[in-house]
């Protein structure tokens, strides 16, 4: 997977990915359980990963680098290379888009350096 700095602001319709500005089809938001939820496809594609959706099972599969990550809407368990991993909150569908919790997605993608900036409501 490509390594680059990504800046995502809650409520914004764009994000910074390296030196590029990427338009999001739906903005990040904070859900009822107080977790920041990211639009999955835009975020993972910014890191060079591929996303597949299975409508029958409501499961999204992310393929990037040496990782295959599967998440099912409403389930707090994701699978990384077939190994179950607990999530803080389940993926959701909002505005016909799949959203996942930022920290769970970062961990699944092997990103350990993630920071919340309260003054700008953004993750880096």
Automatic annotation (TrEMBL):
Protein name: Copper amine oxidase-like N-terminal domain-containing protein
UniProt-listed SUPFAM superfamilies: Copper amine oxidase, domain N
Domain Copper amine oxidase-like N-terminal per the UniProt entry, residue ranges: 21-122
């Amino acid at each position: 997977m490509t390594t680059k700095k990504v800046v995502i602001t809650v409520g914004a319709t764009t994000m910074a990915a390296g030196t590029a500005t990427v338009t999001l089809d739906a903005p990040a938001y904070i859900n009822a359980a107080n977790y920041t939820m990211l639009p999955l496809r835009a975020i993972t594609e910014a890191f060079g990963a591929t996303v597949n959706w299975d409508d029958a099972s409501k499961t999204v599969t992310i393929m990037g680098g040496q990782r295959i990550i599967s998440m099912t809407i409403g389930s707090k368990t994701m699978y990384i290379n077939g190994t179950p991993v607990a999530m803080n909150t389940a993926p959701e569908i909002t505005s016909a888009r799949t959203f996942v919790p930022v920290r769970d997605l970062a961990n699944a993608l092997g990103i350990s350096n993630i920071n919340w900036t309260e003054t700008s409501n953004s993750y880096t």
